[in-house]
## 1
Amino acid sequence: MTGATPTPARTPDADAGAVYQLTVNGTPLTVEGSRPTDSLLHVLRDRLGLPGAKNACEQGECGSCSVLVDGMLVCACLELAEAAVGCEITTVEGLTPVGAEPGDAALTGAVLTDVQQAMIEAGGVQCGFCTPGFIVAIQDLLGRVPEPGPLEVREALAGNLCRCTGYGRILAAIERVVAVRGNGR
Amino acid sequence: MTPVRASTGVEAPSARGGAASVAGIGDSPVRPDGTPKVQGGFAFASDLEADGMLWGRTLRSPHAHARLRSVEIGRAFAIPGVSCVLTADDVPGTATYGLISPDQPVFARDVVRYMGEPVAAVAADHPDTARRALAAIAVDYEPLDPLVDPTRAASVETPPIHPDGNVIRHIRIDHGDPAATGDVVVEGVYEVGMQDQAFLGPESGLAIPDGDGGVDLWVATQSLHEDRDQLAACLGLPHEQVRLHLGGVGGAFGGREDLSIHVHACLLALRTGRPVKMSYLRDESFVGHVHRHPARMRYRHHATTAGDLVKIEAQVLLDGGAYASSSWAVVSNAARFACGPYRVPNALVDATVVRTNNPPCGAMRGFGAVQVCFGHESQMDKLATRLGMDPVELRVRNALETGDVLPTGQRLTGAVPVAECIRAAVEHPLPTTSSDGWLERPGGAGRTAEASRVRRGVGVAAGFKNLMYSEGAEDDSEARVRLSEGVASITCAVAEVGQGFVTIASQIARTVLGCDAVVEPAGTVGIGSAGSSSASRQTWMSGGAVLRAAREVAVQVRSALAERLGVAPGSLTLTDDGRIVAAAAGEAAGGGRALDMTVAEAAGDGIFEATAVQRHRRTYQLDERGQGDADVSFVFAAHRAVVDVDTDLGLVRVVQVTTGQDVGRMLHPTQVIGQIEGGIAQGVGLAVMEEIVVEDGVVRNPSFTDYLIPTVADTPEVLATCIEQPEPEAPFGAKGAGEPPTISSTAAVAAAIRAATGVDVTRVPVRPWDLI
């Protein structure tokens, strides 16, 4: 790009909020120039360089932006970023296999969790836009309920929309994970 | 300059991705883009960014029809952080665009014809600044009466709302004896509502000016070259100055065949000299792409008392909305497939698509075949009832076979397993009676259904449509395969929208060359068009192009090996699994040992490359009597649905959908099942919940709060049988698998609801108040 003016896009403007820190995937990150009205989703995606949480509806209906805030599954689009100061935020980028610590540089991004692996192998991923949200929600469900019944799974994931798969292969992925984890116990 | 996250995620298989592309045809290797997609690192178009980037947004008309008296942009410009505001005066090239005819303005001038029509665009330093800038643009509209009734639009007495007129296309198919009558006649009038593709990844792209007057655009689309051609015309630039690159695509289903952010983002980028990103919010997405055409259909079926179809009369009226998009082709599909997958000796089909001030309609999965399937299958059930015949038996009795002639006069060649599809669909076991669980009753967690008031019903439907483009349209695909250092790299401009072409292409190269394969990022530079990822055509067309190129590479390698060995190329045989073997052991093949190695091994240090184009047989536009060999090939499916209906509240739970689907041959069984399950979910959605509600041209439910798509709690159990009868002209015999699941699943659910309630369901989606 030779003709562009190399002006930073993230210039703080007049009504910018205070500088604050968010703890994301175990790492404290400084947010500058954010507006008080910025959603956690916007800050994660557009200010902290973590695009894993997706922007499909920004109304809390589709679950594509599912993240964990202090261990609770939420839609990042409905949370104000500044309200998450002091909380532990976990995004799909911070998921690590059992036994690894979040933020473990040797593992983060290099190894898939059993849920991630099963989603790929079972065919639960097509376009992939809903996938990060599903993975966070499935990890959350199986963390709370190791062997959920079929209706329990459907109820727990009814807040995550997928338009490609019809959910069949996603459910198959969950079955795989439950079976393998069950055998390991 | 490239965006920070411009990776398509289509990477070489690595330790973390597993054996992405080492399996060949018929296996189910994992997607090569699976790992970045599950980790959140896959670069969707809405994830892209670049240094110095601005945010673009579009100002859209709140009126369905209005005179545009003035657009005052001064106050928007005055807002700090706003870099650019554009209107119709700022379009340097052609002012309009369109897939088939360029009738849609980049920005409205003088008149707006639908709610959501773009009027202006802004670029600013923050999405909120851009939003405030839109609010500061003063537009003086003089509202006009919207033309929203398609029947009125079709009348010659109604003044046209566009210089191109209100009738976009009228087709009449006149087949056999128009005076023929049957012993038994059944009639019906049917309606289909407006469905949305509802892909999850919003329309998005990043335009980066090159400083020399050209522009690069990363965009979520179904067809890079078709976009490029339309975009370049509007920008007034030669093709080589408009370079498109595929941004990661979050689903499509037809909704990305038309331009969306393209011209606006590129104009803003060229004007400001800075990268501009645009990404629609969901409410804008609902008016920012075309929808499935609403349809009104009138049918009359004639049959003998024995149950043989004698004649079908069908009138189909599609609401095309304000601009033509692909309506010209959609109405042709509606006409060609109006009679269903049955032998019909006499037919009169009259199909029209009109322009109204409703939202523009165009491509959606099934493309015209879905609407008429609800019509013809409702009629087949009505006929079965009248004849006292089993509806499955009636369908099988009339099922098309190879050699039969369609109402267009086209004789069917190739695989036509209609009866097999129907039988397979109904052979699956029925679900057991529902348990007592609330979640398993209609209304689900709402706990509204009294168990004694729930009725179960079963329905069956069959449908078909074309593969590839029809009526003489050209949709060749070009691919390049390069074999170097034991890896094949594939270049093809296919839009990977989620369907898994990247997996299939890798499998094909692996099968032919016996090595790992990588699919390079898709773009318009240095490769010809692959056509659109639509019409269930990429497996055949671009899969075919990859196959041809790979085979050519294999032949090159064989020749080089033969030269090295000093033997005739003909003495070395290329096998179906990517190996080169000596025809017979002997001294020519070296030391008396039979030669047997993969093509990639035989290539050694050499670099081999071939580019190939896949074409299909010529097709012809329908003549004035609707006759002509319009199609390349056809694909068939049948569905059986089981529903539970709460007869107090009219709520429906779809319990199970089973299917028999004509697939030709499965190249990747897991991906085929994924297409079937996903397509059925969309068909179920159209049957019981999905409708864009339009009142006086105004969309009332542009959100996932109000436009409902099936969740995992709404989606039925799916049992599928794939009918594998290889298609003679198709690469590997494989037919596209994407659209058939949506064609007759809706009609099957509607039939099941009729069976459960006794209500004559004549409209989908079925609403609670239709049933009580």
## 2
Amino acid sequence: MGLYSYFIEGNVPMAIGTKTSAAVADSSAKVSEKTGGAYTDMAAVIQSELNRIIGNAGPNAGLVQTEPEDVLGKGNRLPDSNGTLREAEQK
Amino acid sequence: MPFNLLLLPLLGGFLFFSHWNRTKYFAKRQDKERLLLYSSFYGVILLAISFGASIIVPHIPPLLRLRHWWAYNTPAIRFSGISSFAFALGALAPGVFNYVWPFKRIWTSEKVSRKAIFDYGGPLEQLLYRAIDEQKSVMVSLSGGKVYVGRVVTSLAPQDDSAFYLLQTKSGYRDEKQRVEMTTNYDEVYRQIFLHEKESALSIISDFGVVIPVKEIVSATLFREDIHTKYFPHTELGKPPASNTPAPTSALMSPPKSP
């Protein structure tokens, strides 16, 4: 239970106008087929904000790290040990 | 053709227009009259295809048997087959175009919906979409003087553009000189909630979301805290500027002022 359940298993309480059905909260912009309006996952927004806040403040224990495959899928770039982005190696 | 039979191609045209990836986001932005006209337009195309098919059918034995079955097992109404076929085309064609290669590669929902927002959406809708897409914060000033900074969760819908949903990260007000004074920084609040309410942190934080009514908005802009802190030293005219180093995060900030 806890944040693992919220972020990984998708047991996220719904807020107004939010959707979280994916296993991992998806922070990309989506457009509703019903309304035509753009939206994103509330869980992803909160996760992003917590990463920004807690990540700057100290150890981010309990926060879920993005899967490497997701990072590759988004931009095909991975962070170096010194924090700079580099092109992912082609397998 | 009896006029009442034209209803079926019209319905087919509506189904096609409102479900095909290429047109469905455009359809969301049409008023009733235009929606009817576009549906009629696609209905005429479907009817023409159906008429064309009726010419070919006698030359294809399996389809000819289907035609005979239709003639003997449905009410004897002239052109009902052509009209029904036009409706069926309108209902099934979006599935083909949306899910069958190569059509699904040409008109993807993501590409078309984004294009619809930037081609037909208003400046506010485009700004909110950009904030979601680029994961940036927006600063919204309301007519009552209240100012919110936060992340957009749900943007405007074309047919109900009355409000949008924001997860606030800062709030404040505009003073008598219309400068922004931030009074509450939610970073520390969220951090404390995360540290002490692990089981229900997400649920609690999501409750901080606020619905912003569009008619109350005076201005809206993307907000970058680092740039805002660095380049707006928040000083009174005639007084020396404050340091450019970012202020530490705290639950109640000393009220910075921006021009």
